[in-house]
Write a structure and sequence with these properties.
- By secondary structure, the protein is α+β, with helices and mostly antiparallel strands.
- The protein contains six helices and seven strands.
- The chain is globular.
- This is Nitrous oxide reductase accessory protein NosL.
- Keywords: Signal.
């Protein structure tokens, strides 16, 4: 049955896979899977306690090298987390971050946060009805948002602590 289910693996690998399953030993992964993880209904943002599942156009996520993840209700909270990890996560350090993801504000598809474009100062309100940083996969989409809703386009490296502090909110850290 496994030979039918996993034909792409190849006949040479299947016996080793079967042996590992029969013996009950773990199967070594070749590389850590740092792709975005499904955000459960019960997952809470480590910064504000909200449920990221409820606001898919705002969701952000950090996947750590140990393949655990922290999900956020907005890009602003993700940046707050990155800027002060010791406050929000006692088990990981900045060096443990394997990948950072944000949802495209328009399509809700995951985008590499370091390649995304963020809009500051637009009329769009985040999950707490406060100014936030809607994220976009392309500069063109971010500029279209600016044209319709106002604001300014920023790249990942331009979202500084000062930018985050400038956003209103009771939970600014």
């Amino acid at each position: 049955m496994i030979r039918r289910v996993l034909p792409a693996i190849g006949a040479a690998i299947v016996p080793a896979l079967l042996a590992a399953l029969v013996i009950g030993q773990p199967i070594a992964a070749s590389a850590a899977d740092l792709s975005p993880q499904y955000v459960q209904r019960s997952t809470r943002c480590p910064v504000c306690g909200m449920y990221p599942y409820r606001t898919p156009q705002w969701t952000a996520q950090i996947v750590f090298n140990d393949q655990t993840a922290s999900s956020f209700d907005s890009p602003a909270d993700m940046f707050r987390f990155i800027n002060n990890m010791m406050l929000f996560d006692k088990t990981h350090k900045p060096a443990d971050i394997g990948a950072i993801w944000v949802a495209d504000y328009t399509t809700k598809a995951w985008v590499d946060a370091k390649k995304a474009f963020y809009v500051i100062g637009s009329k769009a309100r985040g999950p707490m009805n406060e100014p936030n940083l809607p994220a976009f996969a392309s500069r063109e989409a971010a500029e279209a948002h600016v044209k319709a809703e106002g604001g300014k386009v920023l790249g990942f490296g331009e979202v500084t602590r000062e930018v985050i502090k400038s956003l209103a909110g009771a939970h600014n850290h």
